Amino acid sequence: MTGDFNIRDNLWDLNFPFHSIYSDMLFDIADSFSLALPKPIENFLTRFSDNDQNSNLVLDLIFTWPSSTEFNQHHIHLDWKLSFNHVPITIDIPIRDEDIPTKQCSLIKESDEENQFIEDLIQFIKNLNTSSIQDIESLEEVVQFLATNIKDIWFKHLKMVNITRQSKAWWNEDCCHTLYKY
Fold first, then answer.
1. How far apart are CA 141 and CA 146, in angstroms?
2. What's the domain count of the chain?
3. Which tens digit of pLDDT belongs to each residue from 37-61?
4. Residue where one domain finishes, among candidates 45, 66, 97
5. Crossing angle, helix 136-157 and helix 112-127, to 10 degrees?
6. 55-96, pLDDT tens digit by residue?
7. DSSP code of 160?
8. 159's torsion region: left (phi>0), alpha (psi -120 to 50) or beta?
């Protein structure tokens, strides 16, 4: 949370002798979002007056997430002030690469692939030899064998489907045929 809060306070401006009740309210708001004002390494002014009659101040603040080292690296850019009376404050936010899947494995309901999957699965279960089950260890082996084969049968019949904004759970083969006819 950053901005020109227009609050003078000796908590962030060491040249200002007073504490403001408005800064307490600001801290309460920031705290409600689990944010805190990082301690500056140096006391930088952030607002510069246009005339010599007024003093330069610290009015621009940045509140960050205190438990994150990534989000506590802010910079006050005195050299970027140019013709503005406020100094820009920036923070580097790391953006990680994220793999967003565009395809998924699927068996379309009531499709030929689904029907063949079910047939192959029933046939496998019918032929499953359970006569060797004598104890928990042999039961676990048969269950593992069953799980592996179900997975193999699944991968044999699955279809790779592109995920698009038109991907809908209700879309079936009838919809495809109707769309094709259209």
1. 9
2. 2
3. 876 555 677 667 766 666 666 667 7
4. 97
5. 160
6. 666 667 778 887 777 666 777 776 776 667 777 777 777 777
7. E
8. beta
